[in-house]
From TrEMBL:
Keywords: Isomerase, Pyridoxal phosphate
Cofactors required: pyridoxal 5'-phosphate
Protein name: Alanine racemase
Gene3D superfamilies, sorted: Alanine racemase (3.20.20.10), Lyase, Ornithine Decarboxylase, Chain A, domain 1 (2.40.37.10)
Length: 432
């Protein structure tokens, strides 16, 4: 399943020296980040808001990737950041995002996080009524969203209708500034998001009648990414089964690696349904979104070196069992007992016969496989080759990484295009 590839990735793979020089200099697995693509992704969402005539706010879900260059791209392109810890908040400020452009999410926030967020004028998504009391004790005016438990959901996040009513009553007493409401939904269906947002318009109007500003509804993240073409995805699903994987491995679910309505297209569908865009315009309500993966689409790759090769046989057909110098913790779909399916690229390009291969990690764990699936490589891999896993910036690199076995955590490399057409790189050494 070859991944969709941007021009910057193609240039990196085709350059006879650049990728090899990076690997030589770093000497261990690493991630490549291309922040210019993050800026284009932000601009794509903003264009949808503008076309619909809707006041929109974009907050990057920072948990999707810790790289400092991503937050800097957000600052440069007018996006805010969604943070859930003191460390994330400090890193956002250090990379140029103003406090008023932060939204603080998560349950049962620490006193230190609430204090710092209040000091910088951040918007705070309140998860339960008692959090309002803790904010009042800080003695400063504070901007809040009330997080809604979606109807029929058993999520541990958000407030029931009765809890929302109690929270609004508490906000009436000040110094709470009720800015609106927020929610998060699982899955990638735009319709439930649109319908719940439309219902919250009425809650905003009711809060306004009580003197609150109530001009923002946040629908959270969950904007899908289109990793591979439809034919490749459908072909995989039709033939998926233990016979395609090392040791007869099987998985119950996969991320939807092909999506007809990814990112900004999904946002347009949200705004189109239930006349949501019209209702937002007529009532002067801003729609906020908190995408993580979708702002990182095609903005990074993960590079590992082959350091071992074995031959195994399945159903009478040989395949390579490769060992690389990293772990599956850099491909975090394994976190969900699933498989990261876009094909890695074998570098450098050389002639040879097509050879299937699975990819294991340099650890003592039988289960530590980066790719259980037998990937159709264009030639047999050899020790010293590089495997470049594409489009890993969103939730793959660094979500689960640890120094297991004492192996160092892969660093991030920032790649940029220069005005004279060159590509230059440096380590992402800014605040995390």
């Amino acid at each position: 399943m070859p991944a969709h590839r941007d021009e910057w990735e193609q240039r990196l793979l085709e350059d006879p020296d650049l990728l090899g020089d990076m690997a030589f200099a770093i000497g261990r697995p690493f991630h490549v980040m291309y922040p210019e693509r993050v800026g284009r992704n932000i601009d794509g969402f903003r264009a949808v808001f503008e076309q619909a005539g809707v006041d929109g706010a974009i907050f990057y879900g920072k948990k999707a990737n810790k790289a400092a260059c991503v937050v800097r791209a957000c600052a440069d392109h007018g996006a805010g950041v969604d943070v859930a810890s003191v460390s994330e908040l400090v890193a956002a400020l250090a990379n140029g995002v103003r406090g008023e452009d932060l939204v603080v999410t998560g349950p049962a926030k620490s006193p230190e996080l609430l204090w710092l967020a209040t000091r910088h004028g951040a918007l705070i998504a309140v998860d339960e009524p008692g959090e309002l009391d803790r904010l009042v004790e800080l003695g400063s005016a504070v901007r809040v969203l009330l997080r809604v438990l979606p109807p029929g959901s058993d999520s541990r996040f958000g407030m029931t209708p009765a809890e929302l009513d109690a929270a609004v009553n508490r906000a009436d007493l000040g110094p709470i500034m009720l800015e609106g409401f927020s929610f998060h939904l699982s899955g990638y269906d735009p319709i439930p998001r649109s319908e719940l947002a439309a219902a919250l318009v009425d809650r905003c109007l009711a809060a306004r009648a009580r003197g609150h500003r109530a001009r923002t509804i946040s629908i959270g993240g969950g904007f899908a990414v289109d990793y591979v073409g439809v034919e490749a995805w459908q072909g995989f699903l039709a033939a998926a089964g233990p016979g395609r994987f090392h040791a007869g491995k099987s998985f119950d679910t996969y991320y939807p690696y092909h999506c007809d309505t990814p990112g900004p297209v999904m946002l347009a569908a949200v705004l189109d349904h239930a006349q949501l865009a019209r209702r937002l315009r007529e009532n002067g309500i801003r729609l906020a979104i908190e995408p993580g993966r979708a702002l990182l689409d095609r903005a990074g790759s993960t590079v590992l070196r082959v350091q071992g090769v074995k031959i195994r046989t399945a159903q009478g057909h040989p395949y390579q069992l490769l060992t690389v110098d990293g772990t599956s913790l850099s491909l975090s779909e394994q976190w969900f007992d699933s498989e990261y399916l876009p094909d890695p690229v074998l570098w450098p390009t050389r002639p040879g016969a097509g050879t299937p291969a699975c990819v294991g990690a340099a650890t003592c764990l039988e289960s530590d496989m980066l790719s259980w699936r037998r990937i159709p490589l264009p030639r047999a891999a050899t020790i010293g080759d590089l495997l470049v896993y594409p489009n890993t910036a969103g939730y793959q690199m660094d979500s689960n990484e640890s120094a297991f076995h004492g192996l160092p955590i892969p660093p991030k490399v920032v790649l940029r295009s220069t005005p004279d057409g060159r590509m230059r790189w440096r380590l992402d050494t800014g605040p995390l």
